[in-house]
Specification:
The chain is of the alpha+beta class and 176 residues long. The chain folds into 2 domains: 2-139, secretion proteins EscU (name from scop), CATH 3.40.1690; 142-176, no CATH class. It is built from 5 helices and 4 strands; from the N terminus they run αβββαβααα. It has a 4-stranded mixed beta sheet, with helices on both faces. Strand 1 (14-18) and strand 2 form a beta hairpin. The longest helix has 15 residues, at 86-100. It is globular, with a radius of gyration of 21 Å.
Length: 176
């Protein structure tokens, strides 16, 4: 699985890093994907290996701890990024496309260099995006633990929020 993941890093559009602890590789093809997909992710030694492969294959590396952590903690390999991160991911991909001279998927090649008007000299290096990321997204938490009471309610056919122990606790109006 790790070998395949490293092969997928070679084709990534971007690797987000927290500079050494977390790495997440993204790929986006507007023709075949609704949203960017996570092709690889890892922590510590795996993050280091993702970075090494990305550097060897000239995949752009974007160092932003909160962005990398948010991607790491809210994503799964092979899945689309969380809708809560669409804006941030779009901003970073646009920035990377501008830096590398590539056009963003679904745009003309001129879009990577402004509006196509003017003397063709461009405006220099694109401006680094200012990312606004919900701090809650960049914190580790046990996967799915917050959902357990709601899942139990759904399994038992109860309305959400009635709790796993009906008739006890503040949710039912009776003190435990």
């Amino acid at each position: 699985a790790t070998r395949r993941m490293m092969t997928d890093v070679q084709k990534a559009d971007l690797v987000a890093m927290n500079p050494s602890h977390y790495a997440v590789a993204l790929r986006y093809d507007a023709k075949t994907m609704k949203a960017p997909r996570v092709v690889a992710k890892g922590a510590d030694l795996v993050a280091f290996e993702i970075r090494r492969v990305a550097e060897a294959h000239k995949v752009p590396i974007f160092e932003h701890p909160q962005f990398a952590r948010a991607l790491y903690f809210t994503s799964d390999i092979g899945k689309e990024v969380s809708p809560r991160l669409y804006v941030a991911v779009a901003q970073v991909l646009t920035y990377i496309y501008q830096l590398t001279g590539r056009s963003a998927p679904g745009t003309s090649p001129r879009a990577a260099h402004g509006n196509g008007k003017g003397n063709g000299k461009g405006k220099g290096k694109p401006k680094l995006p200012v990312l606004t990321i919900d701090p809650e997204l960049s914190e580790p938490r046990p996967p799915g633990m917050a959902e357990v009471p709601r899942m139990q309610d759904a399994i038992r056919g109860r309305p959400p929020g009635t709790g796993a122990n009906p008739g006890r606790g503040p949710q039912s109006g009776v003190e435990a």
